Amino acid sequence: MQVTNILFLLVGLGAFGYYLGRGRSLAMANPLGGIRRLHSLPSYHGMHVALWCLIPSLILLGLWFIFADAVINNLVISSLEPALLPPDSAGYNLVFNKINNIASGVIKEQGQPLGLIEAAQYMDSLRTMSRWSLTLLLLTVSLFGLAWGQRKITVDFRARPAVEKVMQNMLFVCACLAIFTTLGIVLSVLFESIQFFRSVPLYDFVFGLDWSPQTAIREDQVGSSGSFGAIPLFVGTLLVSAVAMFIAVPIGLMSAIYLAEYAGKNVRTFAKPALEVLAGIPTVVYGFFAALTVAPFLRNLGSDFGLAISSESALAAGGVMGIMIIPFISSLADDVITAVPQSMRDGSLAMGATQSETIRRVVIPAALPGIVGGIMLAVSRAIGETMIVVMAAGMAANLTANPLESVTTVTVQIVTLLTGDQEFDSPKTLAAFALGLMLFMVTLVLNIVALHIVKKYREQYE
Amino acid sequence: MNNQSENLSRIQSSLKRRNRSEALFQWYGRTAIFIGLAAVAVLFFDIISKGHGAFRATYIKLDVHYDQSLIGIDNLADAAQLVDGNWAALSKAAIRGNFPDVSGRRDKRKLNKLLSNGAGFDLKDRLVENPQLLNKTEAVWILADDDIDTYFKSWLDNNPYDARLTDKQVQWIDDLYQQGRIELFFNANLFTRGDSREPEQAGIRGALMGSFLTLIMTLMLSFPIGVSAAIYLEEFAPKNKWTDFIEVNINNLAAVPSIIFGLLGLAIFINFFHVPRSVPIVGGLVLTLMTLPTIIITSRAAIKSVPPSIREAALGMGASKYQMVLHHVLPLALPGMLTGAIIGMAQALGETAPLLMIGMVAFIVDIPSGFSDPATVLPVQIFLWADSPERAFIEKTSAAIMVLLSFLIIMNTSAVWLRKRLERRW
After folding, report:
1. Better pLDDT: A399 or B213
2. Which residues 425-444 of A have a C-beta within 8 angstroms of B?
3. Residues from chain B contacting residue A327 (CB–CB below 8 Å)
4. What value does the mean pLDDT of chain A take?
5. Other beta carbons within 10 Å of B13
């Protein structure tokens, strides 16, 4: 039976359990003088039965999902003749995939070794058996749960607290998902990175000056080892981010100041959402804009002035990224500036300062921690931005600080290393996870510090 | 006395400079806003001017003779025969019929190149739908090749781009134009077909379906989980270290680069749990984790905005805490939560980078029909087309961007509308 069908059946059983439990509690209460004799409302009794019916079987289903395939695979492999068993893990996967494909009919049986066909048939029978036994087991468990829930119903049974306790646990698990996600990120990048650092020393990775991850297929080819010095990537990332911040910070900050301090209501209601449109545009659109409009424009402009600007220059990618970040900075700075108490402005104006003097000498210094926090968040965003640089920045790792040349970034390399079919345990793919670890750590530190500063600042004026 | 007037004159003399710097400062502010708005305008103008052409495609009107012997089949109902039929011969014969003077292998090949190389299959579909046409002749508008399409559109704009055409081809197109046999029509292929290597046959239907399925998956998971987490944190969580830790994690996840979520999906879902690559299920899972912080944060704000008096009234009437939340707080906070969900979905719809990691970049022609069919999504389709060397794909890419942006605009304005319409001010 299909898993989705089993799920539907279980949900149906749960609904039936609800109906039975509700009916039974009502039947018990009626001779005693109505539902006011019950501790809990009949719907809670119904829900209690439904939970007993569903939760154990759903847990069972989850366990089956995790373990069934592994158990079946082990049984199949151990049934193989020793002659067919390959020595290493790569060959192991190959044989196993072959069996799998024969079993699911992707490869025709003709022409395959007899042992493999037998293994495939064995696998097929095991799968059918496991699915049927699962169906049977789930039905038994949920019917048993239903009966148990039904038996527990009495007039005094505290069904509501029991149901609420289950709900509270479910809510708690949902809230903890954020922790699991962080944990998942850390574990996934950490494990692969550790594997990577086994073949490439940490020192060579962090301080190496040469990045060329192309590893040869055959041992005797030139450059078969590849070199994984990440400094050119870090420099490229910083260069693109610096260009972006060079554009975004002045424009974002000045427009926030103007909108918060000078602009009339009409300008504000029009200009603020119009600027925020920039924040809603997907990054792939900015990437297209950078690669097909801005980069050729800059190259032509450069050649008019006798400057050689690469068509994948850091200037084009960083400039467009800066435009993307403008609304991010301006809305954060706007919040911070409007949070500065009016009394501080009034005091300065009363002393005879002009409005711009008030802003520069009073408002900005008062808002500075918040603004710095906002800029740090923007930097973390620029470092982690992917699509613009993938589409508009280069692939080759040049160690340069010249924004007119082509550079590559950490995110570009992660994408190029991981798209396409590669074996998962080559240093080339693992390098992407090591870069991911670096990226995650840097943005994590920036975010935590920035969020801390912003929070502290908010408390100051509350 | 002397001192005072001296001060006054110093203030007077500096006033001009100070006023000038005031004006300059305001000018900076105005310029900054102008640059920002100009960027919006240039971006939209650039995309629309590049992409508007893709909504129309060039068709050539030819007299097609559905010659049975040419196709080489005897039964239209036989699927195996339909596959083996020589359908390209139909369109080739039709274009040669229009230019009988053309001779020589090379010229004939160039002539055939006027038509899309899928033209024969379009004729097949038409014949299968109308079997009575067999061995008859009719005039059909046939899809032109992408190079012809690019040339014809640029020629209509008085700026002909003929770098990829021969002089003879240009002459033929001119002849067709004189005969009224070449024209632009609405490009239905763009909305009804999947991806293709041939720009004139490529459409966004597959990517739209993929985006739709992925978003449904994301919404089904992230909305209930996000709302539950928000309820827990606002209404039930005790003030302790663990709760603080959860909050730090949520705020931090909201700022983690999206590509990191792609790495997570690749390592955990694909390599550990063996979810197949490229399917909407795994895309939905990754985007769920990515949009959860947004949904949790907006839902918490919505719950916070429900005044405590509502809660106290419910508790005072003898409701349990859960009854208070489910019957009173949640319905009042729902509009705000829905707004947050729409904003989260808009974010997920525009996301590209994490989906590249989990294999949703594959070249997929078939239109996905379920959560476990290989699929790609609209932003990734844009990325793939932007990488294609054919000039005609620039137009297609811009058109796909226009479709994506209009969806985003619809979602965001409906979120604003929902907030204005349904949110109650206390």
Report:
1. B213
2. 432-433, 436, 439-440, 443-444
3. 36
4. 86
5. 9
Give the Cβ contact number of residue B410 at 10 Å.
12
Q: How far apart are CA B21 and CA B198, in angstroms?
A: 59
Q: Are A330 and A259 in contact (CB under 8 A)?
A: yes
Tokens of residue B100, six digits: 């009988």
Per-residue pLDDT band at B1 (split at 50, 70, 90)? low
pLDDT band, very low/low/confident/very high, at A322 (cuts 50, 70, 90): very high
Q: Which of helix, strand or coil describes residue A63?
A: helix
Say how far apart CA B267 and CA B21 lie, in whole Å.
56
For A186, name the nearest residue in chain B, comparing CA atoms only.
Answer: B264
Task: Tell me, yes or no, if B412 comes closer than 8 A to chain A by beta carbon.
Answer: yes
Residue range B321-353, pLDDT digits in tens: 999 999 999 999 998 899 999 999 999 999 999
Q: Which residues contact A101 (CB under 8 A, 6 or more apart)?
A: A107
B45 contact A CB<8A = no
pLDDT attached to residue A218: 56
pTM: 0.89
With a cut of 90, say whether residue A386 has pLDDT above it.
yes
What's the length of chain A?
462
Q: Which residue's structure tokens are 């990437």?
A: A287
Please state, in angstroms and rounded to a whole number, the distance separating the CA atoms of residues B346 and B215: 9
pLDDT of A429 above 70:
yes
Q: Quick count: other Cβ atoms within 10 Å of Cβ B363?
A: 11
Give the pLDDT score at A220: 56
Average pLDDT, chain B: 89
A53 contacts A146 by C-beta, under 8 angstroms? yes
Kindly list the structural domains of chain A, giving each domain's residue range(s) and its CATH number in brackets, ordered by start. Answer: 3-157 (no CATH), 227-460 (1.10.3720.10)
- Can you say how many angstroms the Cα of residue A39 is from the centroid of all Cα atoms in its chain? 45
Task: Give the model's pLDDT for residue A425.
Answer: 67
pLDDT tens, residue by residue, A200-238: 888 888 888 888 877 655 555 555 567 888 899 999 999
Closest CB to A288: pick one of B229, B232, B397.
B397
Both tokens of B163, joined, read 């770098």
Determine phi and psi for B162, rounding to 5 degrees. -115, 25
Q: Would you tell me which residues 363-392 of chain A have a C-beta closer than 8 angstroms to some C-beta of chain B?
A: 377, 380-381, 383-387, 390-391
Q: Do B404 and A262 touch (CB under 8 A)?
A: no
Closest C-alpha to B90, from B110, B119, B61: B119
What is the rounded distance in angstroms from the CA atom of residue A455 to the CA atom of residue A434? 31
Cα distances (Å, whole numbers) of residue B353 to A238, A287, A415, B28: 20, 12, 8, 36
Q: Are A428 and A215 in contact (CB under 8 A)?
A: yes
Residue A156's Cβ-count burial label (10 Å; 0-12, 13-18, 19+) is exposed
- Please answer whether residues B246 and B297 qualify as being in contact, where contact means their C-beta atoms are separated by less than 8 angstroms: no
Q: Classify B5 as helix, strand or coil.
A: helix
Q: Do B379 and A443 count as a contact with CB atoms less than 8 A apart?
A: no
**CA gap B203, B197 in Å, rounded:** 10
* Shortest CA distance from A436: residue in chain B: B260
What Rg value do the Cα atoms of chain A yield, rounded?
32
Dihedral pair phi/psi, residue B198, rounded to 5°: -90, 115
Contact pairs from chain A to chain B, CB under 8 Å = 251
pLDDT in tens, B273-297: 777 888 899 999 999 999 999 999 9
CB < 8 Å to B40, chain A: 274-275, 277-278
The chain A residue lying nearest B404, using CA atoms, is A282
Q: Does A330 touch chain B (CB under 8 A)?
A: yes
pLDDT at B241: 92
Q: Which of B344, B348, B343 is nearest to B415 (CA)?
A: B343
Q: Does A85 have pLDDT greater than 80?
A: no
Q: Identify any residues that bridge with B115 across adjacent strands, giving them in sequence order.
A: B144
